[in-house]
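Translate structure to sequence.
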C-alpha cells in the first residue's frame, strides 16, 4: 500500500523531529541552570586545603559512579603520603620496577580513617595463622589481585561511601522517568514497523516505510537515553564535583613563587595524591621542580626526601611523580578485578 508507506514515512520523521527537539531543549535547560547566588558583596574565599568530604581515591567514583582498580591504588598512595604505609619498589637487574612492597607503619588509626581505608590498613596485615605474629608487609600484586579480600572489602566500602555522601539517589534504580517509558515504547514500535515495512519493500520496492520505521526507533533511543540521564546526579554529587574542580584549579594554578622553600616537601607530599587523581601530576611536579631550582639558586637547597616511597638518590619531583604514577598504571597479572558500579 503506497499510501500507508508514505504515511509511515511522514509520521516517523515527525516523531523523530519531536524527539530531537525534546532532547535539545532538555540539554539546553541543563546547561542554562543558574548557579546559586552568594549572599554578600564578595564571593566566599576558597580554602587552600583539600576538600574534607572526600579523598583522592573517591574522585573516580564521584565522576563516573564506578570503583576501579586505580581508585584503590590512589587510596594506598594517599594513605602512604599521610604516614600509614610505606611503598618500596623492587628493581630487577635493569633497574626497572617489577613489584612494590607495602609495609604498615606504627602510626595508629584515628577518627579520620574511613571504612575503605581501614580495610586496606588492617586486613592485609592480619596474622595468618591467627596464633602467629601479625604480618608487616604485603606485595601490591597480592593486595590487588583478583579475589583479594582486602581489595574486595575496600571496593565495597568505597561504593558504600558514595551512598553515605549522598552522591547516588537512593531510589535511582527503582525510578524511571516518563521519557524512558515513552522511548522504550517507540523503540519497540519502530522495530516492529521496520520489520513489516521491509516485507513490503521486497514486494513493492518502496523504501519510504522502512525509513519511517527506523525514524521511530531512533526517536525511541533518543528519548530513552534522556530518561536514564535524569537521575544520575544528586545535589550533593554536583556540589562535590564543584569543590573538586575548584581544588584542581588551585593545584594547576600554583606557581613556583607560591611555594615557600621550607614547605616544598610538605606541600608536594600532601598534594601529589590529589594531582595524580586529577591527572595534573606532571604539571604540578614541574612547578615543584621550578620552586626547588629557585631555592637552590638562592643558596637554600631543599631535598624532597619522601620517606614513604624510598627511591635512592635524589629524584626530581617529576621523576618521583612518574614512579608513583607507574604504580597506579601497572598491568594487572592474573586478571583485573571487576569494576563495581553503584
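Result:
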Amino acid at each position: 500500500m503506497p499510501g500507508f508507506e508514505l504515511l509511515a514515512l511522514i509520521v516517523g520523521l515527525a516523531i523523530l523531529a519531536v524527539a530531537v527537539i525534546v532532547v535539545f531543549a532538555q540539554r539546553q535547560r541543563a546547561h542554562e541552570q543558574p548557579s546559586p547566588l552568594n549572599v554578600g558583596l564578595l564571593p566566599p574565599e576558597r580554602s587552600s586545603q583539600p576538600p574534607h568530604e572526600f579523598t583522592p581515591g573517591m574522585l573516580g567514583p564521584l565522576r563516573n559512579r564506578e570503583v576501579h582498580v586505580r581508585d584503590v591504588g590512589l587510596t594506598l598512595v594517599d594513605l602512604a603520603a599521610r604516614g600509614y604505609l610505606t611503598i618500596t619498589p623492587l628493581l630487577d637487574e635493569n633497574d626497572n620496577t617489577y613489584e612494590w612492597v607495602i609495609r604498615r607503619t606504627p602510626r595508629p588509626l584515628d577518627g579520620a580513617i574511613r571504612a575503605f581505608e581501614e580495610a586496606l590498613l588492617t586486613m592485609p596485615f592480619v596474622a595468618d595463622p591467627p596464633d602467629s605474629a601479625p604480618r608487616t608487609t604485603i606485595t601490591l600484586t597480592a593486595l590487588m589481585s583478583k579475589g583479594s579480600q582486602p581489595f574486595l572489602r575496600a571496593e565495597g566500602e568505597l561504593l558504600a561511601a558514595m551512598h553515605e555522601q549522598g552522591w547516588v539517589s537512593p531510589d535511582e534504580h527503582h525510578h524511571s522517568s516518563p521519557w524512558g517509558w515513552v522511548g522504550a515504547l517507540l523503540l519497540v514500535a519502530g522495530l516492529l514497523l521496520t520489520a513489516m515495512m521491509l516485507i513490503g519493500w521486497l514486494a513493492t520496492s518502496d523504501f519510504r516505510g522502512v525509513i519511517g520505521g527506523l525514524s521511530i526507533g531512533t526517536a525511541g533511543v533518543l528519548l530513552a537515553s534522556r530518561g536514564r540521564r535524569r537521575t544520575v546526579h544528586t545535589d550533593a554529587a554536583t556540589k562535590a564535583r564543584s569543590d573538586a574542580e575548584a581544588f584542581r584549579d588551585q593545584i594547576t594554578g600554583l606557581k613556583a613563587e607560591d611555594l615557600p622553600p621550607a614547605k616544598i616537601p610538605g606541600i608536594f607530599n600532601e598534594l601529589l595524591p590529589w594531582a595524580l587523581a586529577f591527572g595534573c601530576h606532571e604539571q604540578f611536579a614541574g612547578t615543584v621542580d621550578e620552586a626547588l631550582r629557585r631555592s637552590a639558586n638562592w643558596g637554600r637547597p631543599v631535598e624532597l626526601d619522601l620517606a614513604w616511597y624510598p627511591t635512592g638518590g635524589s629524584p626530581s619531583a617529576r621523576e618521583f611523580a612518574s614512579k608513583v604514577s607507574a604504580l597506579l598504571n601497572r598491568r594487572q597479572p592474573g586478571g583485573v578485578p571487576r569494576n563495581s558500579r553503584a
